[in-house]
Design goal:
By secondary structure, the protein is an alpha+beta fold. Strand 11 and strand 12 form a beta hairpin.
Length: 410
């Protein structure tokens, strides 16, 4: 077995996005505006440069809202420009950005609302906000939403981390303004975070029986040919790598179901352009498990130090007896041996069959609805929120009225 494992070599590409200094706390001239029409005014070099600088100042890293991912997503999925960008500036510098759109329905209910924009291939909805500007950002967002509510009954924030400076600031602003709000969905995502190196972590995360089984599967696979784990930290060979991934994914059940990335021109373009953009900025890690140089399992994750974010994996189902996807994720544990990455968000569902077992830490992610507008609109929203929360067990972390701060999320 051969491997090109992560090491100190190439660490510059992981950490080149080191955070810029925070915008000064005494900066007071702020402005909230929305791009109109649509988002296209930010699809130009000057705006992208400001956007990239904001990403390096953000208190909550989110690769899915950075320019190199969000612009390909908008080009592919919103060519008509229905999505707009809320842009918050402080003393002339871009200090906050969140894509949003208006909708006439809320899931299957006829409740018009405004919402932060995500799509099926976007796994985190935290807005990009410069460190130190979190409270000012949320005040500006909610003030803008009050003044521009139109037919919207509330603001819906999707896939938001339920801990950290950004969330704490949102809770603070909601409480000080006595707004009705509630966490209407909460889940615990698998996270890789440990002070242990990769091998000691593996021994603690898996039982001895499970470890023996993985070794047996690897050895059986190695009996069939030369097995390698190939890591890429840069953009070398990115175009053929993307094509290999798309073919591999389409060869399995996703291809049969029509949900593979390569099944539509839009998602194919989004995948290839996003990976190329991430690699060009040193924010992409790719790993492939190959058999006689043929990829049988592949993964592409994003890097935004001090974190890493899961994106896409694929494996050849004809090798299912050897669990190639699990073997690849076991190899990926080697990111624990790097000093510049403190945690990895799987961006996977809580019950993911591989990640929920192998990545033992958890991160709370949720959807939050917030009342906007005047008293009549907020009264209507309270009724909607009470009905929604009444269909679930609220638990200690869910509030129908944020006058009281609930238990802090994990």
């Amino acid at each position: 077995m051969a491997t090109t494992a992560p090491s100190s070599t190439g660490s510059e590409s992981w950490s080149q996005s080191a955070r810029l200094p925070a915008i000064p706390a005494d900066a007071t001239r702020s402005e909230m505006r929305v791009t109109a029409p649509g988002w296209r005014e930010f699809d130009c070099p000057g705006q992208i440069a400001q956007w990239d600088a904001l990403a390096q100042r953000a208190s909550e890293p989110n690769p899915y809202f950075e320019s190199w991912f969000l612009l390909p997503a908008l080009r592919a999925l919103d060519p008509q420009g229905a999505v707009q960008l809320l842009c918050f500036s402080v003393d002339g510098e871009l200090a906050g950005l969140m894509p949003f759109q208006r909708s006439r329905s809320y899931y299957s209910y006829p409740f018009p609302h405004a919402a932060s924009w995500v799509h099926p291939n976007c796994f985190l909805g935290a807005p990009l906000v410069a460190r130190g500007c979190e409270t000012a950002f949320w005040r500006a967002v909610l003030d803008w939403a009050d003044r521009n509510a139109r037919s919207a009954l509330f603001l819906h924030l999707t896939e938001l981390p339920l801990a950290g400076e950004l969330y704490d600031a949102l809770e603070e602003v909601i409480a000080e303004q006595n707004r009705p709000s509630g966490i209407v969905m909460r889940q615990q995502r698998p996270v890789l975070a440990s002070p242990l190196a990769s091998e000691p972590y593996f021994e603690t995360a898996y039982s001895s029986k499970r470890r023996r089984e993985l070794r047996r599967q690897f050895n059986r696979l190695a009996d069939s040919g030369v097995v390698e784990f190939v890591w890429h930290w840069d953009d070398a060979g990115i175009a053929p790598w993307c094509e290999d991934f798309l073919r591999l994914e389409a060869s399995g059940w996703k291809g049969e179901a029509g949900s593979a990335l390569g099944c539509t021109d839009a998602t194919r373009a989004l995948f290839c352009q996003a990976l190329e953009g991430a690699a060009g900025r040193g924010k992409l890690v790719r790993v492939a498990l190959t058999l006689d140089r043929r990829p049988i399992a592949m993964l592409a994750n994003f890097v935004d130090a001090p974190g890493s974010f899961g994106f896409k994996t694929a494996f050849d189902e004809s090798f299912g007896a050897y669990s190639p996807g699990v073997l690849l994720e076991r190899e990926y544990l080697k990111v624990l041996d790097r000093s510049d990455i403190a945690w990895c968000d799987s961006c996977a569902a809580p019950d993911h069959p591989v990640m929920s077992e192998m990545w033992t830490a958890r991160r709370a992610i949720g959807r939050i609805s917030v009342g906007i507008g005047g008293p009549v609109r907020r009264t209507a929203f309270r009724a909607i929120l009470a009905q929604e929360l009444g269909r679930q067990d609220p638990g200690p972390e869910t509030s129908a009225d944020t006058g009281q701060k609930k238990d802090a999320p994990a």
